[in-house]
Design a protein that fits this description.
The structure is a single chain. The protein contains 14 helices and 17 strands. By secondary structure, the chain is of the alpha/beta class. The protein folds into 2 domains: 31 residues; 374 residues, Alkaline Phosphatase, subunit A, CATH 3.40.720.10. A hairpin with a 6-residue loop joins β13 and β14. The N terminus is likely disordered.
Length: 484
Amino acid sequence: MSACNDYIAFSNRRDFLSKSAMGLGAMALGSLINPLQAFNAPSLLNGGGGVLGQPHFAPKAKRIIYMFQSGAPSQLDLFDPKPLLKKMNGQDIPPSVRGEQRLTGMTAGQSSFPLAGSVFDFKQHGSSGAWVSELMPHTAKVVDELCFVKSLYTEAINHDPAVTFIQTGSQQPGRPSIGAWMSYGLGTDNENLPSFVVLVTKGKNGQPLYSRSWGSGFLPAQHQGVQFRSGKDPVLYLNNPDGVSALDRRRQLDHLKQLQELQAAKIRDPEIEARIAQYEMAFRMQSSVPDVVDLSDEPDHIFDMYGEDSKKPGTYAANCLLARRLAEKGVKFIQLFHQGWDQHGNLPNAIKVQAKETDQASAALLMDLKQRGMLDDTLLIWGGEFGRTSYSQGKLTVDNYGRDHHPRCFTSWMAGAGVKPGYSYGATDDFGYNITQNPVHVHDLQATILHLLGIDHEKLTYRFQGRRFRLTDVHGQVVKDILT
């Protein structure tokens, strides 16, 4: 029995010394370094500050509204007119222009590649003289506020990797989205709403959208985008079940938080803090979300500005109006997804529908922000994942054609905080096939967006699986020529 007691005493002393060494060592280390950096995450329980604490330098933009046009709008029918295509309509694109570009499976088997001039008229607008198609009359009225980037290019040739690339900086799934990076770095300006909100147009068909496009990847889970939907429950699973009062819910969360804090202290897993933060955010959102999504207090002239569809929840126009309300409430990154731009055939008819659904509301959002004094510190972005070919996919007729994917060049526009208004940057050749001036890679666009938020894209990193990751991977240059 004495031997047994001696063993227990020895074991306890050994455990005590071991645990004390670890505990005291951790405390000493924690006093010397930033504990947030040590765990690769900001504190999730003491407010909405991001891991950076403050931007690397003075930001031009306080918030971003990104109107993502999923499926790839045809730049040749909207913003980048090419008279030569009309002149050579039906003739094959010269091999010297097409080069050795990899083709998609949709056109790889074609025996010819006939050039297709746009059936739509283009005119110059505003004092800037920007060219805009007849499809976009409302956008044409605000061109002097826009900065067109006509020389974007990507490495992806199909939709899913291209969308993943422009949203996360990698063609492979699993990386954090641009909104998640911003939330991780800068935190939130309103603790009652997520820092990153996603709005998807209801009832649209097209290339599928996956939640990884607004996911947090390997970042703490509370940085993922929160999708707001139209209907009774704007955020799924947010409301209490029948019979559960707000007080009951509060008590439940308090007890759950105590249990999770015990677990967090024991195993030191940052994801436990993320889970607590998500529960607390959801509780606060129970009162904040119904107010922000209720458009009934908007005056008639605002609905008139955004168009008739703005009265229909879930439409692109209603989402644009909701985006303005979210911006007013301090949401830092708002992303709209509008599907249906993938027009491999019947483009002239299909693109009319897409333009009508998006043109007026996009321009109205800009004007609405401007009249409220918010455009100066809000960055607007409009564009898709790649461009469309100047040659026709399938049969070309007098009034019908389709266009395949084209990663070599495409057009997006930006407006607001920190970008030059009434400006066009970059250029493509007369065939609308290759970039001739100022190419802008997807990573360059991402670096520029972060720069406008006051973030050095090379310094916002996260250590995962033995290496430090960033949104722009290992390249990316800020496009300084488009900045004010």
